[in-house]
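Attaching the record inline, Q. Sequence:
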Amino acid sequence: MKQISADFRNSLAAEIATLCRCWRLQRKDNTVLGLTDHDASVTFQNTKYLADSGMTPTALETGADLARDGMEMSGILGSPHLAADDLRNGLYDGCDVQLWLVDWQNPTHGLRLMQGTFGQVRCIGDKFTVVLEGQASNLQQAIGRTFQKKCDAILGDKRCSVNLTQNAYSTATILRQVGKLVLVVDKLSTYAAGWFVQGEIAFTTGKLAGARVAIRDDVIEATTRRLTLWQSLSNLPSVNDRVTLIAGCDKSFATCQTKFSNYRNFRGMPHMPAESLLVSNAAR
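Structure, as predicted:
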C-alpha cells in the first residue's frame, strides 16, 4: 500500500489541481536527468525536473497480481534535454526510472507511481517511443544457470575475471575510414585477424562518444584493419575519431584456455554429452 502524507493528500483533494508528473532517469554511467510535463521546471528531492521535455505518456498499467506493469512514452527527437544521439546510441537503454506525481506549487511531497527501467528505444523518423517497464517485469526473466557447453559469464565480469584493460585485450586507435556498418582503423598487427570478433568498439570522441557497438567481423588488409559491425550506427563518425577496441570471446572452452588463459574460471560445461548421445543406439 502506498503511503501518502497529509499535505499531499490535501493536494489531491484540492478543487484546483496543481499536480504534475516527474520522471527521474538515472543512466548506467550515473548521469541523472529529471523531466516533467509541467510548464516550468520543478525541484523535488534534490533533483531538478526540466520542463519542455517533449514527452507524451500513455496510461500507467499496474495491478495487485504478478502481471507485467509499465507504460509507454513517446516524444520528438531533438528535445533540448533528451539528446537524440544519446537515445539512438543506447545510452538510456536499461536506465533506472522513477515516475512521481508531485504538487508543483508545494514540491516537498510526492507520490511515487512507478519504479522500473527504461526499455529499448525505437526511433522512427523524428519521433521515438520507449516502454517503461515496472519492477514486476523482473519476474518475467529467467533466473539461474543453464546447463550448456559454452560459458554463460560476460567477458570481463566478476565471474569471468579477465582484465579487459590489459593491452592484450584492448587497444586505443583512431578511425581511418568511416561508414555506418564498416569502420577501418590502423592495421594493429600485434593482434591476429579475428581477435576482436564478438568484441566491442567503444567510441571515446566525436558524435558517438560513449557508445559501444558489437563487432561482427575483423579482417586484416594490407595496411589497415576492417571492422564490420553487427548493427548500423545511428550517426556517421568522423575520420580521426578515437576508439577503443575490446577483444571478443565465443564462449568456448578452447578460446577461454588459449586466448585468455582463464580456463579455471570457465563457466560452462564443456564435457557435456551431445544431444545425439541421448537418441543413439547402444553398442553391443
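The first helix runs from residue 6 to 13. The domain at 6-140 is CATH 2.30.110 (Pnp Oxidase; Chain A).

More tomorrow.
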